[in-house]
Amino acid sequence: MGKPNESVFTPEELSRAQSYKARDYPKDVDPGVEDVVRGMLAGFADKWTVVILDTLWDEGTLRFSELGRHVEGISQKMLTQTLRRMERDGLVIRTLYPSVPPKVEYRLSSLGLTLGAAFCNVWIWAVENHKAVQAAREEFDEKD
Amino acid sequence: MGKPNESVFTPEELSRAQSYKARDYPKDVDPGVEDVVRGMLAGFADKWTVVILDTLWDEGTLRFSELGRHVEGISQKMLTQTLRRMERDGLVIRTLYPSVPPKVEYRLSSLGLTLGAAFCNVWIWAVENHKAVQAAREEFDEKD
DNA sequence: CGGTATCCACTTAGATACTG
DNA sequence: CAGTATCTAAGTGGATACCG
């Protein structure tokens, strides 16, 4: 993902797009790295990961069951599974207090914090454009 | 997703995170909107959508089959399906040239362009941090 | 060329029951 | 409390064949 292919967009559109970017994409990225990145992104791009990232971003530190209550609709199985993967990827830190009953706390690592920051722009986009998406859907659906 | 819960992070970590953000998340977002946004994000957060967004960002305008060749590993079915959903969401514009054989071109709408810009930060994060993720995985795996 | 339709193997995720 | 284990229903996506 380099510079956008500008030919088809107006200067206004390009400038509007710019307002969602923190910085420009680096110019010379090793093509091999692009593939790695593509694969990694596909891994993060699932429903629960994004929501958990967001929740921990907002709440700071949460116990397993608290997290479950914050993330509406998630099953215990998916919560465990997703947290385990995020821990493995270095995005969250899991702290076990060996008490009875056991207590386990989850919080973002600094790697998770920066990823959350990057996703923040996507959230902003969604807040600002969800009505446009809604409108597009309705138009698409009604024209047979 | 408001401000990060800052208590657990150092100023350095917070400042590093800031460098991935184009702007700060708006302060007072209707909680009802948050739910809508959450749902919508879950819809975009799939493997193929992100890759197609990226490809059209880079290439500008592509025919159906060209797109298929650029997006490695995608089946015709998924390509059709994903493009149709993105078109419905107003992210891509589909242009049909009624020639024989038919020719269909796809390109990003300005809505798609801005979403691509927002995702750009995530790509940058991935490029800059994929080694850290890799290292985290290896450490996690070897400590049984 | 750019699809749609059908079939099927495989994955996924929820519900449930159980445990340190 | 914070999981693991097992079963199963539903969904997903690939392969193949066919059509305008």
**Main sheet: strands, sense, barrel of chain A:** 3 strands, antiparallel
Largest interface: A-B, 72 and 73 residues
Q: Give the DSSP E fraction of chain A (strand runs of 2 or more residues).
A: 5-15%
Distance between the termini of chain A: 35 Å
Total helices of chain A: the number is 6
Radius of gyration of chain A: 19 Å
Low-confidence segments of chain A, given as residue ranges, are none
Secondary-structure element string of chain A: HHHEHHEEH
Q: How many runs of DSSP E, i.e. beta strands of chain A?
A: 3
Strand order within the widest sheet of chain A? Answer: 1-3-2
The helix fraction of chain A, in percent, is 55-70%
Q: What structural category characterises the helix and strand content of chain A?
A: mainly alpha
What's the overall geometry of chain A? globular
